[in-house]
Specification:
The chain is an alpha+beta fold and 261 residues long. Helices cover 39% and strands 23% of the residues. Helix 5 packs across helix 6 and helix 5 packs across helix 7.
Length: 261
């Protein structure tokens, strides 16, 4: 006991260690890095800001049960790839659904030019593609005239050109509507910015299993949130909601797309 008390007294009497000297601040060049924006990034920044400044942009949401599309894809994906030489993905279904909705709500396929509204009677659908240098939006021409295989091939070819830096300016011009899929990165919900001068852009998101009430019973369904950003100067709220409902209905009954109903 005496030894223990002596040790405690000695420890209390010992001088406290000197505080450590503050570390020298890191040079400013080590704390941040300044990099000149690429021409592509400058163009993206300018166009996105122009879209926000010039359009009366608003976003409305819905959700879609992906069960039917996923079941159809699972049933036919192998024979589809064998016959057409391309994989059956979700983008072709969404492209067909969007075209059907655009035909039902033509305001979403229009744009403002001065004091005029220009209604497009063709369906050139931009598909956003992420690359190492930034986001680009190549265009699938006359998507209404293409079948699922042709749409998948067109999207695949444009995606390869985008990632290899081989897109021409003409590949990205003249779109009437855009689809962007943040779901491939895990996005659950977003408000996509318009691709000016277009009046609408559809945001796809991650598919997540959720509990849904189906015919009075709780079932687990693969659900996706849909977001439509639109120019309220051209598209009324009723038209925007109708558009999303048409997309939802087509995806939840994909046979209608195949039969052009």
């Amino acid at each position: 006991k005496g030894d223990a008390l002596a040790a405690l007294e000695a420890r209390a009497a010992a001088p406290a260690p000197a505080p450590a000297a503050p570390s020298a601040p890191r040079p400013i060049h080590e704390r941040e890095e300044r990099v000149k924006m690429t021409r592509l990034r400058q163009t993206i920044a300018r166009r996105l800001k122009e879209a926000q400044n010039n359009a009366a942009m608003l976003t409305t949401f819905n959700e879609v049960d992906m069960s039917a599309v996923m079941a159809l894809r699972a049933q036919y994906k192998d024979v589809f790839e064998k016959r057409h030489g391309v994989k059956l993905g979700f983008m072709s279904f969404f492209t067909k659904a969007v075209v059907a909705a655009l035909k039902a709500v033509p305001d979403v396929n229009a744009e403002i030019d001065g004091q005029d509204i220009v209604y497009k009677n063709h369906y050139d659908i931009g598909v956003a593609v992420g690359t190492d240098k930034g986001l680009v939006v190549p265009v699938v021409r006359d998507a209404d005239a293409l079948n699922l295989a042709e749409i998948e091939k067109a999207i695949g070819d444009l995606g390869k050109k985008a990632r290899s830096g081989g897109l021409a300016i003409e590949d990205m011009q003249g779109g009437t509507f855009t689809i962007t899929n943040g779901g491939i990165y895990g996005s659950l919900m977003s408000t996509p910015i318009l691709n000016a001068p277009q009046s609408g852009i559809l945001g796809m998101h991650a598919i997540k299993e959720r509990a849904m009430v189906v015919n009075g019973k709780i079932e687990i369904r693969p659900m996706m949130y849909l977001a439509l950003s639109y120019d309220h100067r051209v598209v009324d709220g009723q038209g925007a909601v109708t558009f999303l409902v048409k997309v939802k209905e087509a995806l939840e009954d994909p046979q209608r797309l195949l039969l052009d109903l």
